[in-house]
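Researcher: Here's the sequence for the chain we discussed earlier.
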Amino acid sequence: MSHPESQHARIHLHPTAELAERVLLPGDPGRALALAQTLITEPRMFNHHRGLWGYSGPARADGAPLTIQSTGIGGPSAAIVLSELIALGARRAVRVGTCAALDADLRLGEIVIARESICLDGTSRALGAGERVAGDPALTQALLRHAPGARAGAVASVDLFYDAGRRPDTRDALAIELASATLFALGAASDVPVASLLAVSDKFDARGARSRIDAHDLLAAAERMGAAALAALGRADQ
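Model: Thanks. This is the structure I predict for it:
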């Protein structure tokens, strides 16, 4: 369902299909395509402007409309995309992204539910967030029900992917990533429920050397996240 658009609704997203009220937000355009092929019956391209691929159509699971829209890398890009989606009529969203493990017990491919994010980035702070910002409680609780094997807790949102060892104090965070704080802050400011589900794509050893998940395992994790996030979002008429 579409709602009145603000002036910025079509600057970066150029919709070519109907927007659903419920939206999945992967960062990677390729992951958006893979999720659309898995979760949507006959997906139609919603957006391809600026390489931010998005897709809409009826969800295979329940037949109700679903949009899957990539956000790009980091908080600034995610803020632009979610702002325009909200202006176009999105009413609840789940990030389905990736993270690097900080907790040594997390395995590559394991799923993390971000209850809150430590705001170590610039974009969430520019949006008025304090030291921490929480995901929507009800939507996060729904993720807990539909992803029962996932770890849940705080994550840290930062601006740098390649931090060259300059990692800030992440305190009790399970993992580190780039966009959840921004999306939580923007959702709260707009009265739109937003939650975050993350797959562990990277780990670091004691010397800081990175190990990376392989493409097959990452796709499998993304498909698990997509199914759980879709179930948590529910139907528009529920």
